[in-house]
Amino acid sequence: MGLSEHIKDVIENNLEQFLTELPIKHLLKKLRYQHIIGDEEEEELEEIKDDYNRNRRFKKILLTREDRDFYKLCKLLQENKVASIANFGQKLEQEANSGNTEANTSKRQTNSPVLGNAKRSKSDASALTEIDIIEAYRKQVHNWNNNDNREEQNAMTFIKFSSNQ
Questions:
Q1: Could you tell me the pTM of the whole model?
Q2: What is the CA radius of gyration of the chain?
Q3: What is the DSSP string of 103-141?
């Protein structure tokens, strides 16, 4: 699927700084740990000797990822001890979020069993990021996948629900 056009625009608008200042060499393990890159991509990026070309290759990889991966990158940059890198991560995230409209915010609102069924006010909804929602679903799916008796439990839940009607 790849990054949204808005996120691509944010990267392009900050391309010079992205290519010259990103410390990708020092973030490779964290990028892999966050599932932004895979093992083979980490090895490929390690083999590139100069930072500019490494960052260019990373940009190509990032363009094939999802928006949530871009936001993970922003968080990694913000956690950097070098103030200019942390500020760049903040800047990227703010520019990416500035493109979120009311319609995009309403997309993040959900009545899911993971996040609860309560109606959320506009201020509550803006506190929920797409990453929060995705992580909550990931945890739920992980729980489902680790449950060998899921079908049996679903059947039992259906039977209990039906008998209460």
A1: 0.60
A2: 20
A3: HHHHHH---BTTTBS----HHHHHHS-HHHHHHHHHHHH
Close Cβ partners of 127 (under 8 Å, ≥ 6 residues apart): none
Tell me the residue type at 11.
Answer: I
Mean pLDDT rounded to a whole number for the chain: 76
CB-facing half-sphere around the CA of 68: CA atoms within 13 A: 12
CB 10 within 8 A of CB 96: yes
Q: What is the DSSP string of 136-162?
A: HHHHHHHHHHT-TTHHHHHHHHHHHHH
Are 74 and 130 a contacting pair, CB within 8 Å?
Answer: no
* pLDDT bucket at 99, cuts 50 / 70 / 90: confident
pLDDT in tens, 45-56: 999 999 999 999
Query: Rounded to whole angstroms, how far apart are CA atoms 18 and 25?
Result: 13
Q: Which residue from 21, 37, 19 is spatially nearest to 29, judged by alpha carbons?
A: 37
Cα separation, 18 vs 88, in Å, equals 9
Tokens of 9: 């625009």
What is the rounded distance in angstroms from the CA atom of residue 152 to the CA atom of residue 36?
A: 35
Does 127 score more than 60 pLDDT? no
